[in-house]
Amino acid sequence: MIEGIISFLKELKVRNEYLFYFGLLCVILSIVCIVLTKTTSKQVHGVNAWFKPFKFAVSIGLYSWTMAWYCHYLFDFNVTPFNWTVITLFGFELIYIIFQASKGQLSHFNISTPTYSLLYSLMGLVAVLVTLYTAYIGLLFFTQSFPNLPTYYVWSIRLGILIFVIFSFEGGLMGSRMNHSVGAINDNSNWWIVG
How far is residue 161's CA from residue 130's CA, in Å, rounded to a whole number? Predict the structure, then answer.
């Protein structure tokens, strides 16, 4: 098992060194954040403030490693602009979420000042841009052929990206409603970790 993980990480680093290290940074940040949930008492909406950056660090890290793996299969795809889009935009989002958690304040849905309103809007723009770039990569997977890969594997990549894009826009719907959920009250503090 450990050998398989080490082999996967080595291959991932070869496929895309930039997103490998960015994903690794996210893993380290998630560990720091989970430790902070046990050592600090700052709360936002009845949940420890560090669960939100933990959740985002994990999800952004998984996204980075997954897309690093997938993009390796594409023909004539310049991965450098995609790498820097992910690192720059998601890096900004992580820094802001961590900064707000350190103050015990909302990062999302915080329009209490013009600055917070602007930063919240920028996070929304980040999500849209990364989602559209991911949708474009998904389109490439639907239009290119991959004779060296099993059909079920290619379709799992295609459908995985499609599901990601659909649910990312669901997040946009939640943002437009200024609510952490759709059709429920804005208090999910009873949800373990995700809050």
Answer: 12
Does some domain include residue 46? yes
Residue 2's CB is within 10 A of a number of other CB atoms, namely 6
User: In this structure, is residue 187 part of a structural domain?
Assistant: no
Total domains present in the chain:
1
Q: Which two tokens stand for residue 195?
A: 């809050």
- Spatial separation of the C-alpha atoms in residues 192 and 153, rounded to whole Å: 32
The model's pLDDT over 118-173, given as tens digits with 9 standing for 90+, comes to 999 999 999 999 999 999 999 999 999 999 999 999 999 999 999 999 999 888 78
Residue 14 lies in a domain: yes
Residues in the chain: 195
Residue 100 lies in a domain: yes
Q: What is the pTM of this model?
A: 0.92
Which residues span the domain enclosing 63? 2-176
User: Which of 90, 96, 98, 53 is CA-nearest to residue 68?
Assistant: 90
In tens, the pLDDT along 83-107 reads 999 999 999 999 999 999 999 999 9
Q: Which residue from 195, 158, 163 is spatially nearest to 180, judged by alpha carbons?
A: 195
Query: Which element (helix H / strand E) includes 168?
Result: helix 151-176
Gyration radius of the chain over CA positions: 18
